[in-house]
Amino acid sequence: MVVNRRQRGKVQSRQYHAKVSEERRQEARYPTNDAAEVQVLPSTGQRLPATVIDISKSGLRLELGTMLLKGTRVEIMILPPKLVIFGAVRYCRRSGVVFHAGVLIEGVVSSEPDNSGHLHDDEISLYVVGKGLTIPEVLRAKDHLSKCDACSRRMTQTATALRSP
Fold this sequence. Notes:
Radius of gyration: 20 Å
CATH superfamily of the largest domain: predicted glycosyltransferase like domains
Helix content: 25-40%
Strand content: 35-45%
Largest sheet: 6 strands, antiparallel, barrel
CATH architecture of the largest domain: Beta Barrel
CATH topology of the largest domain: Thrombin, subunit H
Number of strands: 6
Order of helices and strands: HEEEEEEHHH
Number of helices: 4
CATH class of the largest domain: Mainly Beta
Distance between the termini: 39 Å
């Protein structure tokens, strides 16, 4: 089969765009839809309403009506006030009428102590599927899985069972 120069250019262009659009993140993102309030630090007292769109072990993405400058330090209160996340804005881009801001997590403070022990089967299943948990539940699961071999093995077994036909 003979491919002319124009066709070859289209094929190479598609291959290039496929490589560029591949996921470059080192950590999986967990989709969420939790209400939050963002306060720019040092505090002026003003709280900006926001929604946490997704979260990973080291970062999260906010949707809010105000642009935040790269490098801005923020305090994010997950509503109802159960969890406060401190971080730094890595980027902020317009997305239609709102802004999406990526935040590097620097610290997390919970108002409730974690006395819950091992993860339950339903928590592991929801974590593997990637939906159904709140931000505090996601952060607790990630932290627990990094420390507990038994729950990590159960998560691997659950993931395998969910993928098999």
